[in-house]
Design goal:
Length: about 180
């Protein structure tokens, strides 16, 4: 009898953990979509320069939930925002997907690196990779390497926005610590 109760208790604990991870993933995805839609509605003064607010949710997912969930949040956000803005399957989606993948890859690599980057450093790496991937993709799609001349301005902006994103993600993570959502 004790064995049965023990097994049921363990199963309930595992189930609760899976539920918490699923709920937190959904909350982060919703936040990323809202931030992405907000950002898409604001015209950028410099071509290719955006705040990258949705990366706050991706960075939080990377730290709290792991690489796989962070990638899912990032790619699903691109798809949902693409559907909502009517840009899915267009050139904008190609830019968004390559930027999101490059950003996730850079953040996952720096977060897992032996060099022990801070969250701000991880965010800056993601922002810079995002810019480089998007401008490379834009040059490829258009066949106009002159597009790359804007990349230097965008890289400087990515440094500043990467700092802001990293600090914001650190704030969100500090608020999640001890939360029932994280189970920590």
């Amino acid at each position: 009898m004790d064995s049965t109760l023990s097994h049921a208790s363990v199963s309930a604990g595992v189930s609760a953990k899976v539920t918490r991870r699923t709920v937190l993933s959904g909350v982060l995805l919703a936040g990323a979509c809202i931030l992405g839609l907000l950002e898409a509605s604001v015209a950028s003064p410099v071509p290719g320069v955006r705040l990258g607010l949705a990366n706050i949710a991706v960075l939080v997912a990377l730290v709290v939930l792991g690489r796989g969930q962070a990638l899912a949040v990032s790619l699903l956000r691109v798809a949902i925002v693409g559907i909502a803005t009517g840009s899915l399957f267009g050139p904008t989606s190609a830019l968004a997907i390559t930027g999101a993948l490059a950003s996730w890859l850079a953040m996952a690599a720096t977060l897992g690196s032996r060099a022990r980057f801070s969250l701000v450093g991880v965010s800056i790496a993601g922002a810079a990779a995002h810019v480089l991937a998007q401008f490379g993709t834009a040059a490829f799609i258009t066949g106009a390497p002159g597009v790359l001349s804007f990349a230097s301005v965008a890289l400087v902006a990515s440094l500043l926005f990467g700092i802001a994103t990293g600090l914001s993600a650190r704030f969100v993570i500090s608020r999640l610590e001890g939360s029932t959502l994280t189970g920590r």
